[in-house]
Specification:
224 residues, mainly beta, Immunoglobulin-like, 2 domains, 4-stranded mixed beta sheet, 4-stranded antiparallel beta sheet, 2 helices, elongated
Length: 224
């Protein structure tokens, strides 16, 4: 009888020891895994409708990469979705958000996203083809406008000096011909000065187009 109780006690202790040993696996060492989807991109669809995603991972033993689209137009093709670096083709105008998931040998995962902005191809227009030349058939006295300061920083002035009056449209246009910002004013006098914000523009060269009725003029601006 005593021997039976002793064997029973040993079995209980063995079971408890086994559970304690297993419970240690419920708290694995935290993974140092890091996912990096790369920097945001902006492209213009003008004969080229693709770009390359340059993702990476670090800090652990990486076992897999997975690219997926989480937002944007339905038209796209990820060439190698299970590679850190892959081309994406068949893009169309719009904003895409792509996500990179990285997994390691502990089955830990990290995610990171990047934005790809696809701009439409430039449409040929006469004001952009001859910047700085006004339509003299309906132009008023002065026939032009000035921008200052130029190069511009956070804001700048546009001064129009002619006898055209009415609805005045001012547009900031990329070198590719895409309208980035558009402003509408009422020109009720010969000399009109307005102050515009360049907030949201990255450094580079742009065009500023002013239209009053059939009169237009376009000048180049430089954003610092």
């Amino acid at each position: 009888m005593k021997q039976g109780l002793l064997l029973f006690g040993v079995a209980i202790l063995a079971t408890l020891f086994s559970r304690c040993s297993k419970s240690g696996t419920d708290n694995p060492v935290p993974s140092s895994l890091v996912a990096n989807a790369g920097t945001d991109q902006s492209i213009t669809v003008a004969g080229v409708d693709s770009t390359t995603l340059n993702g990476s991972g670090s800090g652990s033993n990486i076992t897999s990469f997975t690219w997926t689209k989480v937002l944007g137009p339905a038209q796209y093709t990820i060439v190698n979705p299970n590679q850190a670096k892959t081309a994406i083709n068949n893009l169309t105008e719009g904003i895409y958000i792509f996500e990179l998931e990285v997994r390691d040998d502990q089955n830990a995962s990290r995610r990171d996203t990047l934005r790809v902005t696809v701009n439409a191809a430039a449409k040929p227009t006469s004001p952009l083809s001859t910047p700085g030349n006004a339509d003299s058939s309906t132009a008023g006295r002065g026939n032009s406008f000035t921008i200052y300061p130029n190069p511009v920083t956070d804001n700048f002035n546009v001064e129009i000096n002619n006898n055209n009056k009415g609805k005045m449209i001012i547009q900031i246009i990329s070198p590719a011909g895409a309208v980035i910002n558009s402003f509408i004013f009422d020109k009720d006098q010969e000399n009109k000065k307005v102050n515009l914000l360049s907030r949201g523009l990255t450094s580079g060269v742009y065009f500023l187009r002013v239209q009053i009725g059939n009169w237009t003029d376009t000048k180049k601006i430089i954003k610092l």
